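Help needed: design a sequence for this.
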């Protein structure tokens, strides 16, 4: 049974309202001397980069992948001035969120009423959506992830790979969904000729690479250093103060950035590899959810808007949501306490509060992961 047209329209109106709330909240940052420790967003101060002379990845650098950088540049052209830039950015980010909502609402489910309620509670009016839809540009990648997950479950593997490539060229993290997508070829091969599995898997990877190169190749050729600045910037940056790696350094002492880079990558790669092998027979959706949590657990940087990445899975998977709001509010508490540390004088009390909430957030992530593993949730459309 498909969700009715009335529910789709209601969902689109609701996500627009949620996005408007997010835009108005952070739009306070456009005024002089705003309370930055409350209304901060990455979008408002990025206006100067948006209108900086030159073209992204050719004659100017941007610390985001190509599609996000091009989007920022385009918003500067459309908006022309700070308010116009912010309004244009907000409009299109809300449009991406609406597109993702439309895809989620079109998913067939044996429990349409429950799905509608989950959409409202864990997607449209989730605290992360209300705060972070117009905070950074993650919603762009999130749209392509939702599209990719939908196509993956529909067994349209090549289209899913293309969607993940667009997401990867927006925010990098969607590359982790390629492993479940490739594994699904070999699981499906049990129902058809196994000889077709390997060529199919190579074809999926080829589509991903081809789409990613189609978007990035011109920048790589013309100015490789400007294009690769995203990678060099993130390799050289320290773990952010509201990261679990800051907590670890408080506990054991300072670590070199290169050490954190290597250890965090090894921990993620090892844990994700073991997880994929151990649960390879599970649905790609299950594997993608687990991979996302593992990435968040070990990544050097944990920006608060990253919780948006989990929201589609809370809607699509029939898991108990008992830890959802603990995770959400620990994340918001970590955000607002670290913003207070940044903008109100770097008082130690704010940093210590942040570290406590970071630990609580990680404990909630671990609880969600363990609960999902124990129940072996699988789900298909």
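Sure. Designed sequence:
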């Amino acid at each position: 049974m498909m969700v009715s047209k009335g529910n789709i329209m209601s969902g689109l109106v609701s996500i627009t309202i949620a996005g408007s709330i997010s835009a108005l909240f952070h739009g306070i940052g456009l005024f002089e001397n705003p309370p930055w420790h409350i209304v901060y967003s990455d979008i408002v101060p990025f206006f100067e980069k948006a209108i900086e002379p030159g073209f992204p990845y050719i004659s100017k650098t941007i610390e985001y992948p190509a599609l996000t950088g091009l989007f920022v540049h385009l918003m500067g052209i459309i908006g022309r001035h700070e308010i116009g830039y912010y309004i244009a950015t907000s409009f299109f980010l809300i449009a991406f969120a609406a597109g993702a909502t439309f895809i989620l609402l079109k998913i067939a489910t044996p429990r349409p009423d429950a799905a509608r309620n989950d959409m409202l509670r864990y997607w449209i009016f989730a605290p992360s959506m209300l705060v972070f839809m117009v905070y950074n540009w993650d919603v762009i990648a999130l749209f392509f992830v939702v599209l990719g997950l939908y196509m993956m479950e529909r067994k349209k593997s090549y289209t899913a790979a293309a969607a993940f490539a667009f997401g990867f060229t927006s925010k990098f993290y969607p590359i982790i969904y390629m492993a479940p997508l490739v594994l699904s070829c070999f699981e499906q091969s049990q129902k058809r000729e196994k000889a077709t599995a390997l060529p199919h898997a190579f074809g999926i990877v080829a589509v991903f690479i081809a789409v990613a190169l189609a978007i990035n190749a011109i920048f790589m050729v013309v100015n490789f250093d400007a294009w690769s600045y995203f990678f060099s910037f993130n390799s050289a940056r320290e773990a952010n103060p509201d990261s679990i790696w800051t907590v670890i350094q408080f506990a054991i002492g300072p670590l070199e950035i290169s050490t954190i880079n290597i250890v965090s990558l090894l921990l993620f790669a090892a844990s994700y590899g073991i997880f994929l092998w151990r649960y390879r027979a599970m649905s790609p959706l299950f594997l993608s959810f687990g991979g996302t949590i593992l990435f968040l657990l070990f990544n050097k940087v944990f920006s608060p808007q990253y919780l948006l990445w989990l929201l589609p899975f809370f809607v699509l998977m029939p898991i108990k949501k008992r830890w959802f709001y603990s995770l959400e509010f620990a994340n918001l508490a970590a955000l607002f306490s670290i913003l207070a540390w940044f903008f109100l004088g770097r008082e130690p009390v704010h940093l210590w509060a942040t570290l406590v909430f970071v630990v609580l957030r990680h404990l909630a992530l671990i609880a969600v992961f363990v609960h999902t593993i124990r129940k072996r949730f699988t789900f298909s459309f």
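Residues 245 and 251 are 10 Å apart (CA to CA).
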